[in-house]
Amino acid sequence: MNAPMLRTHSPPAAAWHRPAPSPAIVSRRARIPLPRARPAAAAATETRTTAAAGTVEALLLLRESGLRAESLPRHVGVVIDGHERWARARGLSVSEGHAAGRRAVERTVRLSRAWGIRALTVFVCSHENMTRPKAEIDFLMRLYEGFIRDNVDEFSREGIRLHLIGDSPGRPASLLSAASEAHEATRSNSEMVLMLAIGYSGRRDMVQACRELAAEAQRNQLQPEDIDEALIAERLGTSVAAGGELSCPDLVIRTSGERRLSNFLLWQSAFSELFFPDVMWPDFGEDEYLGALRSYQSRERRFGQRK
Hints:
The protein is of the alpha/beta class. The chain has a domain at 61-66 and 75-120 and 134-294: Decaprenyl diphosphate synthase-like (Undecaprenyl pyrophosphate synthetase). Helices cover 42% and strands 11% of the residues. It is built from 8 helices and 6 strands; from the N terminus they run αβααβαβαβααββα. It has helices at residues 40-65, 83-89, 94-115, 134-158, 173-186, 202-218, 229-233, 286-297, and strands at residues 75-79, 119-126, 160-165, 192-200, 251-254, 273-275. Helix 5 (173-186) links the parallel strand 3 and strand 4. Helix 1 (40-65) crosses helix 3. The longest helix is centred in the N-terminal third of the chain and has 26 residues, at 40-65. The N and C termini lie far apart (45 Å).
C-alpha cells in the first residue's frame, strides 16, 4: 500500500524559494511514500483505511529486518541535519530542503508509532539556529506550524500526544497557538509521545530548571540539600513524556555525518546510545531507521556498571 497515516500540505509560498519539488525529486528511500493532498471530506475514510494498511506494512518491515521488537528503544531522539546540503546537491533551494525534511519527519513519526516506540523527540531547530536569515526561519516556523495543524487529527486517531519543547523568544505566536491546540486535543493519548524541539537549547533547559529550584528554595519550599537529579529532571522539557518515565532517549540519531549533539538534550542524553549516519535527513527512510535500530540492538548498555 502506498499511504501512511500522515498527510502533508506545503506552507504559503515565499518569494525567496522555488515551488515545491516534484515527487521525482523527493527522497526515494521510503518504500511507503506519503499521499498527495486531497480534499479532507473525500479522503477521510480512505485515510483511516490506508493508515491501517501502512501500519501493517511497517510491522512487516520490522519483522523482516530481524530486529527484536521487545528490545527496541523506548525513546528515540533525532537531530534532523543536512537539509541545505541535500537541496544544493539537487540544485534546489533551502526551503525545498526543509520541505523534504518535513516529509521525512512524518515518515519517522509513522514508523515509530507502528514499531512501538513510546517517545520520539525531533530536534527541528536550536535556539542558536534562530539567528539564521529571517526568511529561512520564517519559512521553517510556518512549515512546522502546518505540520502540527495538518496532522493533529491523525495524531488523535493514532494515540499520539504532541508537545512543543524549547523556549526561544523567536518562536511565533501562531506556532505556539497551533502547538497548544494540538496538545489540548491529544493530551489523553498514550500510545506515543511526540516532542518537537523548536528553538530548543539543552543548556537553557538546565538553566531554567535551576531557576525554578532556586525560586522554590527562596520560598522555603525546599532546602538546597533536597536538590537531586530527580528534582532537576522533573523540570526539564522532556519531563512531559509519561510523567518523566520516558524523558531520556535510549537512542539519539544525528544525520548528515556530523558527530555532535549541538545542544540537544544534554542532560537527558547522558547514557544514550548515539548513531551518526552519513545520510542527509530528507533521505532518512525505512532502511536508515532500521539500520539505526539494528546498531542499537547490537550494543550492550551498562550505564557505567560492570556486568
